[in-house]
Amino acid sequence: MAEITYTPIEETDVLNAASLNTPFSNIQNGLNDLPSDAPAPGAFNENHLPSMIAFQQSLKRGGYGTLHTYTSGTYVPISSGGDLEIDLGTTFILGEASGIAGILVFLEVMIVKSVYTGAPTTGLATAKTFTRIALAPTSGAAFAGINRTERYAAYGHQAGPQHNGSPSRMCLSTQTLILPSDSATVREVRAEVRVDPSSGVNAQTATLRECWLSVLVLRSTRT
């Protein structure tokens, strides 16, 4: 007989992809391992879910010894040995009719530093690194950013190259639930990055370390 266990989340626990994937997997495996004759006939109605997770995957790019840099003022994929992008394997239709409630996404980006190529033109200038989550509705379709997932880290630097680019090692963490109001269908999810285009002639460079992207497609007959 399958055993389903779940460890309650404590107030001081860290909420991220790793802390949620393990308990969700335990629940998924326990439900899927139930023998077909375990429930009594008629015990479940139309709202019974064989598993609340229809798809899950985590992906890492970069690492402690693998830094990757970006200079674009428009969003580009986070990429180190490949894009930080997850293909769901099929195009999921979101909504009650399909039984897919939404897609839970976690993104963690380790920023080493964000610097100006040359000395800033003002006494105190700020270099910025922006990240966001984007989706493609079908295979091969253009990616569209989800505006509410945009995050940025800002670094103040006194004018002069000697004050430019001290490592900060900041982690930008983003969580979102993709709903039918965001897109009727979803096939791919990826992480994107850019620097601040308002710096004009003083180009910026963002240096990243390890970056994680996790996706969980959630089943439900109600949205």
Overall description:
The protein has one helix spanning 17-32, and strands at residues 53-61, 68-70, 76-77, 85-93, 100-116, 124-136, 144-145, 151-158, 170-178, 185-195, 204-219. A hairpin with a 7-residue loop joins strand 6 and strand 7. It has a single domain (54-219), classed as Jelly Rolls (Sandwich). With 223 residues, the protein is mainly β. The chain is built from 1 helix and 11 strands, in the order αβββββββββββ. The strands form 2 sheets. Strands 3, 4, 6, 7, 8 and 10 form a 6-stranded antiparallel sheet that branches.
Distance between the termini: 32 Å
- Unreliable runs, pLDDT <50, ≥5 residues? 158-163
Q: Radius of gyration over alpha carbons?
A: 21 Å
Q: What is the succession of H and E elements?
A: HEEEEEEEEEEE
CATH secondary-structure class:
Mainly Beta
Query: What is the CATH third-level topology name?
Result: Jelly Rolls
CATH architecture label name = Sandwich
Count of helical regions: 1
Instruction: Bin the helical content.
Output: under 10%
Find the count of extended strands (DSSP E, 2+ residues).
11
Which assembly state applies to the chains in this document?
single chain
**Average of per-residue pLDDT values:** 82
Derived structural class: mainly beta
